[in-house]
Specification:
The complex is a heterodimer of chains A (291) and B (349). In chain A, 72% of the residues lie in helices and 2% in strands. With 291 residues, chain A is mainly alpha-helical. Chain A has one domain. In chain A, helix 2 packs parallel to helix 4, helix 5 packs antiparallel against helix 8 and helix 10 crosses helix 11. The longest helix of chain A is centred in the first third of the chain and has 29 residues. Classes of the chains: A mainly alpha (291), B mainly alpha (349).
Chain lengths: 291, 349
């Protein structure tokens, strides 16, 4: 029982971790809390669905097209809206992303209606593997776990060892200085948003497979992703993924042993409690703001 | 031109003679309104008045004190549920239950204010968002509050008089709205209000000059929650029936939209934002029937989009308004109003 709860907790946590990664990429570069993340991903999932069922393309082709769409969407939103705001504060940026979230939600539910659709996926949720001791994990969960860990490692390497990754970190620390060092800040931002949108889209494909596809698909995963990112400290990639796993496991254990009814809210209780003790999350350095 | 020359100029409630005149005209118009308007118009204005109350409360927190809240639907729900529960289970009369519900909501505001002392920016946004969701989840599980089935509002009775019509509810809601607006105006002109503004501009600097952060931040949350709770209590009677789904995250976002669109840190702005957003909400819900825009959108829906999803256009419009306001006029409608005023005052220069 315990083993199974922890295993499926980690499996659920992997989807939170993916969303958290997407949030962290943007927050790392531009300190924007992106509320549109979930609906950007949801729209990408709908594009994949359209390619698959309306145009009858193959899986590889459809997912590639949808990921390309996700990248373009992210870059476009940054270019068209975020960049236009002059000297915005934290609240202003949150409002802009909330506005974008509503626009994307409105467009998606206008185009596809609110009825639920089955999202086809090459990996099934029903084929399970034995892990020993009666603990099972489905193939889809394994894929999700693999994608989350692979993306985390890739992104970690990207931020650590590539020129663009370092430029992104520089942009976060001091935009003015970064610009003086010859970094094209605007382009870096667009790239960041595109990348984040692609990671979010990966999460949406995986979540749409376990769930059904409708415009509300990503709202809960987005909030859980937020919580995971906050838990991990908003700027740490490893923290975001660990935060996702911790959240998934805690949630499942709570659901298994205490109360299934309040399972959905335990994540937020955990967040508030942990933030009271460590205001900058578990894995980020607490930085003191200058006055 | 608007420079304050002495202390008393800064603390007085009304700045000039014309302001007094227009205030009297406005109050007169509000008093005469139910005599000339039809039932649906009065219903609309009732909704607007409630949203004005909530927007004022939220603006005190977001605009004056600088604390983000994405969980005001939670306070709204607490206010609505406590009012009904106090009336149904404790058999209190309405005029006692409503303020009590406000204070219960304020107590929760105080509790939420405690973690907020240590959090800022995105962390606070997540914590408050989580609060709003948690409240509705918990309300949906408690049998005292009817669980997912919700609660039916009892008939509204005030000093033995049954209030059943829209005009009757207007007579209850509008005075409360006016008094609360007046109260907030008063609050912002006092020591407390100036302390809030100091906390917003820089909490560390405020602490250095002797503003007790613990006290004023939790107080801001409590007062804001009180306003929102009162708004929720009144809303329960407008709707006649409440369930946890009435108070979803979208409600919180719309409250925030009212405050931002109207203008942060401004009472007139809150009123303008609440009026605009509420009116748009009612109009856009039946967007297909609107003149000019309606047929075009219907045609577009048939060709590219789906007809059943047409009402969702309202989200696109609201989203666009929020984004455009932040990009072009961060001070909202209030900023636009001020600029227009200055333009005409200095015309032709």
């Amino acid at each position: 029982m315990l083993g199974q709860l922890i295993t499926s907790g980690i499996a659920i946590g992997a989807t939170y971790a993916l969303m958290a990664l997407a949030m962290v990429i943007i927050y790392k570069t531009s300190e924007v809390l992106n509320f549109a993340q979930g609906d950007m991903a949801m729209l990408s999932a709908f594009v994949a669905y359209m390619c698959l069922s309306t145009y009858g393309l193959g899986f590889a082709m459809s997912f590639t097209l949808a990921l390309a769409f996700a990248f373009a969407l992210g870059a476009f939103l940054e270019f068209a809206f975020l960049r236009r705001a002059k000297e915005p504060n934290v609240l202003g940026l949150i409002i802009i992303t909330l506005g974008l979230e509503m626009m994307l939600y409105g467009l998606a539910s206008w185009r596809w209606g609110s009825d639920q659709k089955d999202f086809p996926f090459p990996v099934s949720d029903f084929e399970v593997h034995q892990l020993g001791g009666g603990v099972v994990i489905s193939e889809l969960n394994l894929v999700t776990l693999g994608v989350a860990c692979a993306l985390m490692i890739l992104l970690f390497m990207f931020f650590r060892y590539t020129k663009v990754g370092v430029a992104m970190k520089a942009t976060q620390q001091n935009q003015q200085a970064a610009r003086l060092m010859g970094i094209r800040v605007g382009r870096i931002m667009m790239l960041t948003w595109g990348m984040s949108s692609v990671v979010g889209a990966c999460a949406a494909f995986l979540i749409a497979t376990t769930d059904t596809l409708d415009p509300n698909l990503m709202w809960t995963p987005q909030l859980k992703g937020f919580s995971a990112a906050v838990l991990g400290g908003m700027t740490s990639l490893v923290g975001a993924v660990l935060g996702g796993f911790i959240l998934g496991v805690v949630e499942n254990l709570f659901g298994g042993y205490v109360s299934v009814e309040f399972k959905a809210v335990v994540a937020f209780a955990v967040i508030v409690l942990i933030l009271c003790v460590k205001p900058s999350g578990l894995f980020a350095k607490h930085y003191v703001r200058k006055v | 031109m608007d420079m304050k020359r002495d202390y008393y100029e800064d603390i007085r409630l009304l700045d000039s003679g014309p302001q007094v005149f227009w205030l009297v005209v406005l109050l007169g118009a509000l008093a005469a309104f139910p005599l000339v308007a039809d039932s649906y118009q009065i219903y609309t204005v009732n909704l607007i008045a409630i949203n004005v109350i909530v927007a004022l409360g939220l603006n005190l927190l977001v605009g004056y004190t600088g604390q983000i809240s994405l969980g005001h639907a939670g306070f709204f729900a607490i206010g609505a549920y406590s009012t009904l529960a106090l009336m149904l289970n404790a058999h209190l009369p309405f005029f006692l239950a409503l303020p009590l519900a406000g204070f219960i909501s304020a107590a929760f505001g105080f509790l939420l204010g405690l973690p907020a002392l240590r959090l800022e920016g995105p962390y606070l946004a997540i914590a408050t968002l989580g609060f709003g969701l948690t409240i509705t989840q918990i309300l949906g599980r408690l049998d005292v509050f009817g669980g997912h089935m919700g609660l039916q509002a009892p008939p509204l009775e005030l000093f033995g008089l049954k209030v059943a019509s829209d005009a009757g509810r207007y007579a209850v809601i509008m005075p409360i709205c006016v008094i609360l607006t007046w109260g907030l105006r008063n609050l912002t002109k006092t020591r407390v209000g100036r302390a809030f503004v100091a906390v917003r501009d820089s909490d560390i600097a405020a602490e250095c000059i002797g503003v007790n952060l613990t006290y004023y931040k939790t107080l801001a949350f409590a007062v804001s929650a009180f306003y929102t709770g009162i708004g929720g209590g009144l809303m329960a009677f407008i709707l006649g029936f409440i369930s946890p789904h009435t108070f979803n995250v979208m409600v919180s976002i719309m409250f925030l939209a009212m405050v931002v669109v109207g203008g942060l840190g401004s009472i007139l702005g809150s009123v303008m934002g609440a009026v605009l957003i509420t009116w748009l909400q009612l109009e856009l819900a039946r967007i297909g029937e609107l003149p000019l825009v309606g047929p075009v959108l219907t045609e577009l829906s048939n060709q590219v989009f789906t007809l059943s999803g047409l009402p969702n256009v309202q989200y696109v419009v609201f989203g666009l308004i929020m984004v455009l306001i932040i990009i072009f006029e961060p001070l909202g409608l209030y900023g636009f109003w001020i600029r227009t005023k200055i333009y005409w005052r200095t015309w032709p220069f």
